[in-house]
């Protein structure tokens, strides 16, 4: 009696976690220690050989990374991992960001974002007219949606609270947490998925690829975080896949249900908002559209493009209503100024091949622009010929394309390599989850494989079709029964395990299989005496 009562309780308890599936194996203590040690060396070099805000960040981050690596090595439990991530966050992001916001003058990026927000509130446009562009600081190379981060300063919030860098960092952490949560394997528990997503987002923003731009006020991290959200949505597929079907007819109108947009539409919204922030986000739109066309069809691709374009245009119109009447404003600030074709040149002049070619003179400048266009067409042809099949292929091609464009741009800087490096980091943090999730299919899907495998071997088809019969019969796939059904009729009979004579349980009034003593009973009166749990 006690054994019978204990069996349902044991079945109701949660099953033990498999060591390969949960927790997620992509970010453990040793990897954190190794990466933080490498980051400490990079920050130390930056503290020695750089100046101004980069040097301040290097001094803060080198000590924070080193202490975080020591903490990760010293404590072997999960608390040591969390403690090292917290120390890395303080040393590489929170500490230098607060220090630079209080003690150092604002960088050009922060000044532009704050000024454009003030112009938007006063004049309805974040851009100055062509007659007021008296210096390079007067230009605004960002699209209007970037102005949102400066509204807190324009509204009068003082000190660190109103600094655009704080809100850029908070937005970046929130978006990356959502992205890593969407990219987690579906079999991971919800609470563990949230905790692991927060850990990975914390680790991502503490790397030099994101921590340095966030601390000094560069505006690329939110766009990169929106890329990650879109890639996570494209890899997860539609949210309603596998859900219970909705009732038809009048019952559909009265049945309560939540409206959940598909993951492709969420990805389109993310890309649309990113395209409304910076011009560097626009290459992601055609790459993702080609992938969706190859995977889901042209109609889904056009739907994605239309949703992204409408989202971007709506955000631009909402953030710059007065600038829509003057197209020349967008031309001078967003197109001509980044290409170096205005009277006042941009200070972004890192010694990359495109800038070195443009510095030779007017002919070299136009040659650099033509080379940039040719490289863009070559990358587009490569993507159309070798179309990406999934979100990881999109990340690889987007990283390669952005790397080529940054290298050949006439006016560029080293910081733009944060895009390809960030995409490669995303692939590294989510690659092991994809491998773990694809190790073993769900048990309920095994029977769907039976018709396909029946073409190869009837014995394997019967094995996949009936889990109870195979557990009760000593089945040897390499042996063939004399009464084996013909291959032509097997596909019609494989759904019914009792229709296969060599897989029927032995007949007998008292036979209940090897699990009879554990709550398994035989159903009397049945022709084939199947097991009944």
Chain-wise SSE layout:
Layout: H1 2-12, H2 29-49, H3 52-74, H4 78-103, H5 108-123, H6 151-154, H7 164-183, H8 190-206, H9 208-216, H10 221-236, H11 250-254, H12 263-275, H13 284-296, H14 298-319, H15 327-339, H16 353-358, H17 362-385, H18 391-408, H19 418-437, H20 450-454, H21 458-465, H22 467-472, H23 487-493, E1 521-522, E2 531-532
Antiparallel strand pairs: 1-2
Explain what this protein looks like in three dimensions:
The chain is mainly α. It has 23 helices and two strands. A two-stranded antiparallel sheet has the order 1-2. Strand 1 (about 520) and strand 2 form a beta hairpin. Helix 7 crosses helix 8 (about 190-205), helix 13 packs antiparallel against helix 14 (about 300-320) and helix 17 runs antiparallel to helix 18.
Count every beta strand, where a strand is a DSSP E run of 2 or more residues. 2
- CA-CA gap between termini: 17 Å
Label the overall shape.
globular
Rg estimate, integer Å: 30 Å
Q: Describe the strand arrangement of the main beta sheet, using strand numbers.
A: 1-2
Assign the structural class, choosing from mainly alpha, mainly beta, alpha/beta, alpha+beta, or little secondary structure: mainly alpha
Question: What is the helix content?
Answer: 55-70%
Strand residues, percent = under 5%
**Number of H- or I-type helical stretches:** 23
Unreliable segments of 5+ consecutive residues: 1-24, 237-260, 435-461, 463-495, 509-533
**Largest β-sheet summary:** 2 strands, antiparallel
Oligomeric composition of the shown chains: single chain
Order of helices and strands: HHHHHHHHHHHHHHHHHHHHHHHEE
